[in-house]
Amino acid sequence: MSGPGFHQHLSQRQTQQMVLAPQLRQSLKILQVAALDLRSVIQEELQNNPTLEEMPMEGVSLEQNNPEPSKDGAEVDGNEPREELDFSKNFEILAKIDDDWRDDQSQGGAGQAYSSEAAEKRQHFFDSLVSETSLQEHLMRQAELSDCPAPVLSAIRFLVGSIDDRGFLTATPADIALMSGLPLEDVQAAHKLLKTFDPPGIGAQNLEGCLLFQMEAKGRGGSIAARVIRDHFDLLTRRRIPDLARRLGVSVEEIQVAIEEIGTLDPAPGRRFADDSNRVVVPDVTIEKDNGQWRILLNSDYIPRLRISQTYRELIAKGQLSKEERDYLRERMRSGRFLINSIEQRQQTIERITREIIKVQEEFLEQGVARLKPLTMTQVADAVGVHETTVSRAIANKYIKTPHGVFDFKYFFTPGYQAQSGDSVSNTSVKEMINDLIAGEDRAHPLSDQELVARLQLKGISIARRTVAKYREELGLLPSNLRREYS
Q1: 333 and 352: one domain?
Q2: Are residue 267 and residue 301 in the same domain, yes or no?
């Protein structure tokens, strides 16, 4: 009797797998945390690394530790941090971190060649967001497991970057396609896929869509509650229960049950991933004018000054330690240098991003919100010389103090419109215009959305009526028929 047989054999296969090193994770964490939280991160490293010590805060700059030869001719320290932060040297610290990482890999990789492909992969991992509680990472993990085509995956990255803390998409797929340069069909396919991700309701463009997606995810897309959301959302928001019952041809009791079901839905599914917002806001950067020039003041009040302990360097220099002890101290010193360099890199990155914001938003600094200009992370990333995801991490959880108040860094990154004069106007400024127009309207004859469109066109802003309606809703302003006051 013959048939298929089973055979065993041994084979070797060489594969490459990049793992995000603990030091790079630490560097990304330092870049992302706010000034107020940075001290606790550094204190944790101080407890774990005996070769690091904190210097007095008064009048002390980062120390430059010069290399000292040990008795066996080996170098005790190399690539020590510079004495002062120098923002004019175009990310020299980043190059040092890159060199340290090469050294670590050459020591642990049996002398393997350092290829350009490995450099690109390492840079990709360095630019990856590593926050465990991030909504963006949660969504990207699902995207990577979905086995979608590469163009759709690229579009999802842009969509995920345009999701706010509530989990809503802050721009239409058409706007995102325009800003990213990706084909519209890829962005639309990505948006369709994104709406199937957890948590249900993610990727909606408004509250109505968010609630409806959740009903459909529960298999309740044909229920009375879903019909209320889909067809009569305006009546729902005004709690017009008798009108809803009449429109849908059901009893008042059935409408009340439907409203109770809607009340169990999550109006902001993204917030479960957000950090506790009940916290003290401390500006990471202050912008102020001095002798006609804008000055950037970085907040260093919560950043301990660090240096490599002279005591442990002298221990190595004496040559009385065993090889294991000497190797351990050198590894700890290398880790300490990496931490110091990461802190310097963080400050440099924030300073350079702030400087680019000033270049674009100088009119805002002079005149206020109405003069806010459109700005994208890609523009700043190109000017600074980093990847846009690095810009995204660098501005996360951080605030900037301006002459007009304290703002989230993300406030300055908005899409916009081209005015007839040729000037660019941010959508934040357009919202301010709409708010001013409604504030000054005749309450007996309030401006309709179409009339707001006409008033904006007189100001040189061409905008669709549905966009005006969306901005009005985001401002918390009622439609014209509900704003009318009768004498």
Answers
A1: yes
A2: no
Query: Using CA atoms, how far apart are residues 294 and 316, in angstroms rounded to an integer?
Result: 47
* Structural domain of 227: 207-273
pTM, entire model:
0.49
Cβ 117 vs Cβ 13: under 8 Å: no
Whether pLDDT at 73 is above 60: no
Q: Are residues 330 and 404 in the same domain?
A: yes
Average pLDDT over residues 113-140: 52
Instruction: Tell me how far the alpha carbon of residue 4 is from its chain's centroid.
Output: 56
Question: What is the count of structural domains for the chain?
Answer: 4
Show the beta-strand stretches assigned E in 203-309: 285-290, 293-298, 305-308
Distance CA 106, CA 101 (A): 9
Report angle CA 228, 232, 233 to the nearest 5 degrees: 85
Examine the fold and report which residue of 194, 218, 240 is the final residue of a domain before the chain moves on: 194
381 and 289 part of one domain? yes
| For residue 227, pLDDT beyond 90 | yes
Give the mean pLDDT of 202-214. Answer: 91
| Predicted confidence (pLDDT) per residue in 451-486, tens digit | 888 888 887 777 888 888 888 887 888 888 878 876
310 pLDDT more than 70: yes
- Of 215, 211, 170, nearest to 191 (Cα)? 170
Pairing mode, strands 305-308 and 416-418: unpaired
3-state helix, strand, coil in the chain (%, to 5): 55, 10, 40
CB atoms within 10 A of CB 238: 13
Q: Same structural domain for residues 289 and 405?
A: yes
Do 376 and 457 lie in a common domain?
Answer: no
Is pLDDT at 72 greater than 90 in this prediction?
Answer: no
Count of CA atoms in the C-beta half-sphere (13 A) of 61: 7
Q: Is residue 389 part of a domain?
A: yes
Instruction: Taking each helix axis as running N to C, give the angle between helix 173-180 and helix 150-161, from 0 to 180 degrees, rounded to the nearest 10.
Output: 110
Of 284, 303, 301, which is closest to residue 402 (Cα–Cα)?
284
CB count, 10 Å around CB of 166? 19
Whether 290 and 374 map to the same domain: the answer is yes
Question: Does any domain span residue 342?
Answer: yes
CA angle 46, 51, 52 (to 5 degrees): 40
More confident residue, 150 or 10: 150
Mean pLDDT score of the chain, rounded to an integer?
76
Check whether residue 292 and residue 394 sit in a common domain: yes
Q: Is the pLDDT reported for residue 152 higher than 60? A: yes
> How many CA atoms, within 13 angstroms, populate the side-chain half-sphere of residue 123?
12
Please check whether residue 126 lies inside any domain of the structure: no
In the chain, the amino acid numbered 264 is T
What percent of the chain clears pLDDT 90, i.e. is strictly above it?
Answer: 12
Domain boundary among 394, 409, 424: 409
CB 345 within 8 A of CB 353: no
Whether residue 5 is contained in a domain is answered as no
What lies within 8 Å, CB to CB, of 22 at 6+ separation is none
